[in-house]
Structure formats: structure tokens, C-alpha cells
């Protein structure tokens, strides 16, 4: 983005393709976070926190 726009919100000047690309990226990142969390708590009893090995 250039600063020629002035004080207008830069998001409203983004193209549809750029917005779609950002959305796809955010969805993919969220899916990755969820997969890691599911793997982490996969064998835990529902409703209980992770058991700490001491």
C-alpha cells in the first residue's frame, strides 16, 4: 500500500483477491492450531486438564 491514500482506511482499498488470499491464509493457520491442540489432548479424559508428569 502506498501512503497516497491519506487517512482513509487501507483495508477498504485492498483488492478482492488480496482479501480472499488473507482469508484463506487465516483459515489455514487456524486449522493448523486446532490440529495441534487436538493432537495434544487426544488421549485426555474429556473435561479434565492435561495431566502434568512430575
UniProtKB/TrEMBL annotation:
Superkingdom of origin organism: Bacteria
Biased composition (Basic and acidic residues): 1-20
Region annotation Disordered: where it falls in the sequence: 1-23
Designated name of the protein: Uncharacterized protein
Organism expressing this protein natively: Pseudoduganella namucuonensis
Amino acid at each position: 500500500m502506498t501512503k497516497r491514500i491519506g487517512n482513509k482506511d487501507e483495508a477498504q482499498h485492498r483488492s478482492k483477491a488480496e482479501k480472499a488470499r488473507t482469508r484463506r491464509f487465516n483459515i489455514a493457520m487456524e486449522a493448523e492450531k486446532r490440529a495441534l491442540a487436538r493432537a495434544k489432548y487426544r488421549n485426555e479424559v474429556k473435561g479434565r486438564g492435561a495431566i502434568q508428569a512430575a
